[in-house]
């Protein structure tokens, strides 16, 4: 089931405004639960967690910055 352009725009806004801050708080709390790690390992963990959210949601964000393909060209 493919999402329409408008639905993807709405979902992307919701994900960026609400989902990403919640994910950031959860990621920081997850790292805080771990025993004391060397700084470079902690940095690598933050980089992995900071980019991991985007891969499963890539289909939502793909093409959002483009012109609506379903819009009429007659303006």
Would you mind describing this structure in some detail?
The protein is mainly alpha-helical and 75 residues long. The protein has one domain (5-61). The protein has 3 helices and no strands. Helix 1 runs antiparallel to helix 2. The model has no long low-confidence stretch (mean pLDDT 89). Keywords: Membrane, Transmembrane, Transmembrane helix. This is DUF2842 domain-containing protein. The chain crosses the membrane at residues 12-37, 43-61.
Features:
single chain; 75 residues; mainly alpha; 0% strand; elongated; DUF2842
Question: Mind sketching the topology for me?
Answer:
Elements: H1 5-33, H2 39-52, H3 58-61
Helix pairs in contact: 1-2
Transmembrane segments: 12-37, 43-61
Keywords: Membrane, Transmembrane, Transmembrane helix
Pfam families: DUF2842
Oligomer: single chain
Number of helices: 3
Secondary-structure element string:
HHH
What structural class do helix, strand and pairing data support? mainly alpha
How big a fraction of the residues is strand? under 5%
Radius of gyration over all CA atoms, rounded: 17 Å
Give the domain tally: 1
The residue ranges in which pLDDT falls below 50 over 5 or more consecutive positions are: none
Report the end-to-end length measured between terminal Cα atoms: 30 Å
The shape is: elongated
What's the short story on this structure?
This protein is mainly alpha-helical and 75 residues long. The protein is built from three helices and no strands.
């Amino acid at each position: 089931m493919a999402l329409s352009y408008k639905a993807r725009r709405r979902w992307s806004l919701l994900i960026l405004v609400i989902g990403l801050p919640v994910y950031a708080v959860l990621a920081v709390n997850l790292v805080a639960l771990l025993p004391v790690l060397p700084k470079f390992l902690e940095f690598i963990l933050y980089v992995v967690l900071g980019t991991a959210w985007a891969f499963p949601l890539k289909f939502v964000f793909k093409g959002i910055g483009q012109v609506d393909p379903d819009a009429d060209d007659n303006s």
